[in-house]
Amino acid sequence: MPRRKVSELELKSVWDESLLSSCVSIPRHRNKLWHHLIYSFSTDPSKKLTPKSSSLADCPYADWQFGRKSIEEIQKNFNLFTTTIVQRYDSARGDTTKLLIRLQDGHEVETVIMRHVTHNTVCISSQIGCQMGCKFCATGTMGIIGDLTAGEIIEQVVHANNIAKIRNVVFMGMGEPLNNYENMKLAVQFLTDSKRFSLSNRHVTVSTVGVLKNMYRLSDEMPYVNLALSLHAPNQEVRLKIVPTARAVSIEKLMEAVDYHIVKNSQYIESVPTKNGGVPEEKSSQTQPLQLDGSWKVAKSTGIMIEYILIGDVNDRDEHAHELAQLLQSRRGYVMLNLIPYNPTEVAEDFRPPTQEQVDQFAKICMSEPYLVHTRVRQEKGQDIAGACGQLAVVNKKAEEKKLSDLEDSGAELSATATTTTTSSSRHHHGGCSDGKEDGECCNDAKGGCQSSKKKNSSHGTDGKSAFLEGVLDGYKDAARLPVDSSKEGINISDNSPVKECEADQQRKKHRSTWLLYGNVAIAAAVGVYSIVAARR
Fold first, then answer.
1. Could you tell me the CA-to-CA distances from 324 to 189, 307, 342, 421, 471 in Å, in that order?
2. Are 149 and 16 in contact (CB under 8 A)?
3. Considering the entire predicted model, what is its pTM?
4. Which of 98, 413, 470, 481 has a Cα-to-Cα distance from 243 of 20 to 30 A?
């Protein structure tokens, strides 16, 4: 599929500061508009309260002292939303909601809301697809289609906030955030601005598989945000089996970038004004060497998370745990290890989740003496709606339609082949007619030839065979469009939904496979039966 060209997008999002600033040059005015939109509008159709307006026309611009020209340009050229929620999926437990969001050019991304006891977190996408190709990740199977604009990234959070009050934002959805650095940066600045979305710096996390140059850039330009490194292996050899792009950057280089973020983050925290209004003395801009002594007493929030997908018999063994804990031991006061049991998804590799015993053992090794690494096991959320870690992917609908077309073409070819085979068998047993007559109209020879009753039976048998084969073929062709009972497990899917919902898709594929198997067996049996009958006649 061709790469998306952002320059060709027609609609302008009011949430995109780089666009809005062209007509609203005063930051104070932009902030008032955004604050009003964040707290006055709702895009959730399930809510009883309706928004004050479905457009930008009814905003109190006069109260904000907007110029007439700015008002006209906003109402004419900008849109409240350039994205729409086309489908919502709620997990059976009710703790996870996945949103399928359609962009203005028809592409789709997924956003996941996770509900915790004390707060809600939204996992947002930064790209359509991903070029990193991690072998355990469904998004990697899509390839890269294009980047999201800053407005499209922010709109995901606005949509989610209208469903559940959002406290935490994690860039862990579809795409590699650091490969869309500029738009990701604009979105983070918007979300953490106290006059806009007003999220705490500590509540925004940017994940990366290891884009080294932009890891350093993030540490320099936004040292206040959390950095999550998707490591997934204790050494380079194992990492290459899981993360193909690991060839470009070694684990040693990645850990140096982690150490750099720790330093920059610590310097930022020390430079933040104190609560009583005092400002600490200016620190030297030169980065001081980090003293990694491994002392648990120096543990502090330095915004570093090490993500580790546990895959059965790949990277979950005891020796992997010891090697990983040794790598993190000197940094244990500064990093948190987040263990994520693998969530089954549609990838080429035959990966499987680890056993619960192995997960517990892996965590125990990392937390025990002499390593004492701060370790957590991520709680699985949204696996039943394909919203868990590594499961986000949107299938291209044109490709699906082509597959369906190919299936129907194959069925038609199979039907024609079966008909030809049976007809050939019948002609072979009858000996055929040298003068080109049809079967059942053979000449009356000394052996009895073909009599009227035989002609009738033969004709009836052929028609019956064709009708039967067509029925079988139609049956498993229609299986491709077989409706799925989505009322179970909290799944909310309309009959004509364009979404490929993973739970429903698994059921649909199961139906297709069953129908194809039965269809092929039935066709083969029909061909054999009619061949035998024809031979006996």
1. 33, 11, 17, 62, 58
2. yes
3. 0.67
4. 98
Give the residues of the chain that fall short of pLDDT 50. Answer: 45, 47-53, 275-289, 294-299, 381-382, 386-393, 395-504
pLDDT digits (tens, 9 = 90+) for 25-83: 999 999 999 988 887 765 554 543 344 445 788 788 888 889 899 999 999 999 999 99
The answer to whether 341 and 264 have CB atoms below 8 angstroms apart is no
Output phi, psi for 483, to 5 deg.
Answer: -70, 145
- Residues labelled catalytic: 110, 389
CA geometry: angle 113, 358, 329, nearest 5 deg: 85
Please confirm whether the linkage preceding 370 is cis (ω < 30° from 0).
Answer: yes
Q: Which two tokens stand for residue 488?
A: 């179970």
Strands 226-230 and 204-208, bridge-based pairing: parallel
N-term to C-term CA, the chain: 56
Which among 99, 185, 118, 149 is positioned nearest to 385, based on CA atoms?
Answer: 99
Amino acid at 139: T
- Closest alpha carbon to 375 in 293, 290, 308: 308
Nearest to 172 by CA among 360, 317, 417, 338: 338
The secondary element (H helix, E strand) that includes residue 87 is strand 84-90
Q: Is 489 left (phi over 0), alpha (psi -120 to 50) or beta?
A: left
